[in-house]
Write a structure and sequence with these properties.
By secondary structure, the chain is α/β, with parallel strands linked by helices. It has 20 helices and 18 strands.
């Protein structure tokens, strides 16, 4: 459906892509990953033809439609929420307004329908209007909109809700290729769970940029990584991609070291005998052999983590904070009645539970942002608390630059370290000189997080700290909080972050706090949860295993035969997959041999463009072979394990 061929794109001397290729077919689910600045959003711009490639071609199948959701700032006018979601064609909203005006007997609102179309109803039916409106409302409900919000002007709502409305529009349109840039940023946990499930049965292809590893693990069946100006494709979800990439890197490093030893040996021979008449021709031959080699580039390590010991807060007492017999209600809505909680030094507690259960309320009560109607909030010896939601707005001075704001700290840090830390949180180059007042909401959140890490209190209370962070920034945050010697209580729907940070889980539901004295894996085990993400919103903290469908009674021999047939079928499928990989490797190796044979011809060395093209193809083939070999090793190991059972 989408074919990218030999595309090169650069900005001045900075090359983002060089001779890259990608094929996206109907039904593909592809995650696009790479470090900040690698070119993920630029690749989207090239596909959308918002920017032009320096070289190469991007072809879209005839009549195929693309739908695109940007990361932030979707357009907004005077439309209502449901009108945005229904905007499947340029004239649809105007037609919908006329139909509704007629239905409501408001002729003034529909006095000139012929300007739009000779027959409004005919055009509306042609667009399948009533079905579209019903579908849009269903999707809006799944994304968390209430019935009373659907006819509200979208401009009255926050930017995050406007983005949800535009996401609903794309899902209603159902384009052939759905391109999503960080679509989970503006979704709460229950909407995210609905969205994941909806996309799993989406009929078109999906190309998604996301920092959410769990989302990628659940949704995608392939990963495309932008690395060293190339697009490298891997089969599998994000976790499988990490395994395959590590295997490919290890093999590439081994090949690189072997080649470097060979080059050193040949060079040593040439250096030793080039001045000796009887050996000069052999020495020259060794140099030509080095020149003709397909040089393997040294593998480049991932972005380095910030190598610094973060400032540490003063040590608190063992008993950090507690709530006794706490009552809290919003009007008639009672959230807590007699709640009890005690947090000790060094605990890293994640609060989980369904939407509306009171997790954020509990965090605000701990931060003294809400006052209980009854009960006690106590602070231990030498405890200073910091509430991250508060920091996002109240910490920053709008007239300062990003760098000046980050440097305004009592911590003894150098400007170089502060700039490095800012870079880890997506403030690089000249962006550190932007004024705080012009930053987006996400940028302000990241800057507040940097300030918090540079001078942390000894009790951190954090509400969704990973929102608006990419993967490398989340890793930087995890590294900083791993070093943190204080106490942490947080809310998050990022399973990766929770697994890395939490050493205790508190389930919040129905005003009840249920404690699990272990990490998130311990909680999943104790509750027999089948989904790490769905478990975050479970209504009950008790085990809720999925009910199995009753099966008809069968004789033991029949059941054993069925199981044997199933194992044989799975093993046959796996063997076919391994054989397919072997055929692909064989094809690549034959092509590699053909190219190398051509490169050895004397006439090619006088044709510089042809020689350069052949060398690029050799390098590209070598990279493909490394990936295929790593994938074959992993799949062959699976086949061997299946044959042993």
């Amino acid at each position: 459906m989408l074919t990218i061929t030999a595309v090169t794109k650069s900005y001045g001397s900075r090359v983002l892509f060089e001779d890259v290729a990608l094929q996206v077919n109907r039904g593909d689910r592809i995650g696009l990953v790479g470090p900040n600045g690698a070119g993920k959003s630029t690749l989207f711009s090239l596909i959308l033809r918002e920017e032009a490639a320096d070289d190469g071609r991007i072809n879209l199948e005839r009549d195929a439609k693309i739908g695109y959701l940007p990361q932030e700032s979707a357009p907004i006018g005077d439309e209502t929420v449901v009108e945005i979601a229904c905007a499947v064609a340029p004239d649809f909203v105007a037609l919908l307004r006329i139909i509704k005006a007629w239905d409501a007997a408001h002729p003034t609102a529909a006095q000139q329908p012929l300007v739009l179309h000779d027959d409004v109803h005919e055009r509306f039916n042609e667009l399948n209007g009533y079905y579209v409106e019903a579908k849009a409302k269903q999707i809006l409900a799944g994304l968390g909109f209430r019935e009373q919000d659907l006819d509200r002007p979208a401009r009255e709502m926050s930017g995050g809700w406007v983005m949800r409305a535009h996401l609903a529009r794309l899902l209603t349109q159902e384009p052939d290729l759905l391109m999503l840039d960080e679509p989970t940023n503006h979704l709460d946990l229950e909407s995210l769970l609905w969205f994941q499930e909806y996309l799993q049965s989406y009929p078109g292809a999906i190309l998604v940029i996301s920092h959410d590893r769990e989302f990628l693990n659940i949704l995608v069946s392939g990963i495309v990584e932008i690395r060293q100006q190339k697009l490298v494709r891997y089969t599998g979800n994000f976790e499988q991609f990490l395994v395959l990439r590590d295997a490919a890197d290890a093999q590439l490093l081994a090949s690189y070291k072997t080649q470097q030893k060979e080059i050193a040996h040949l060079q040593a021979f040439a250096d030793r005998f080039k001045a000796k008449a009887s050996k000069a021709s052999q020495a020259q031959s060794k140099l030509k052999q080095i020149e003709r080699m397909d040089k393997i580039e040294a593998p480049v390590a991932d972005d380095k983590k910030v190598g610094f010991r973060f400032p540490q807060p003063a040590r608190s007492g063992q008993r950090v904070i507690w709530l006794e017999n706490l009552h809290f209600a919003y009007g008639e809505n009672v959230v807590y009645r007699g709640a009890e909680l005690e947090v000790e030094r060094g605990e890293r507690i994640v609060l989980i539970g369904p939407n509306g259960a009171g997790k954020s309320t509990l965090l605000k009560l701990l931060a003294a942002k809400l006052e209980p109607q009854q009960g006690v909030r106590g602070l231990g010896h030498n405890v200073a608390s910091g509430y991250y939601s508060q920091y996002r707005v109240e910490m920053l001075k709008p007239e300062r630059t990003v760098l000046a704001e980050a440097l305004d700290t009592t911590a003894r840090v150098t400007e170089q370290f502060v700039r490095t830390l800012l870079g880890s949180f997506l403030f690089s180059g000249d962006t550190v000189f932007k004024k705080v007042e012009v930053l987006s909401g996400g940028e302000k959140s990241r800057l507040a997080l940097v300030k918090l890490l540079l001078d942390p209190p000894n009790l951190l209370l954090m509400d969704e700290p990973t929102t608006h962070l990419d993967m490398s920034s989340i890793d930087a945050l995890i590294e900083a909080l791993t070093q943190f010697e204080g106490t942490l209580v947080f809310i998050s729907h990022d399973v990766y972050f929770i697994k890395a940070m939490a050493n205790k889980v508190i389930h919040v539901a129905g005003g009840k706090l249920t404690h699990y004295l272990g990490n998130y894996e311990f909680y999943l085990h104790k509750t027999k949860s089948t989904s790490a993400r769905a478990a975050l919103t479970s209504v009950s903290s008790e085990a809720q295993p999925q009910k199995a469908k009753p099966e008809p009674l069968r004789k033991p021999q029949a059941a054993a035969r069925d199981q044997a047939k199933q194992r044989a079928h799975e093993q046959r499928q796996q063997r076919q997959f391994v054989q397919k990989l072997e055929q692909q490797i064989e094809t690549q190796e034959r092509r590699q041999l053909t190219i190398k044979t051509e490169l050895e011809q004397p006439n090619v060395w006088h044709d510089k463009p042809r020689m350069s093209a052949l060398k690029r193809e050799v390098q590209a083939n070598a990279e493909k072979l490394l990936v295929l070999a790593a994938q074959w090793e992993a799949e062959a190991a699976k086949l061997e394990a299946m044959s042993l059972t």
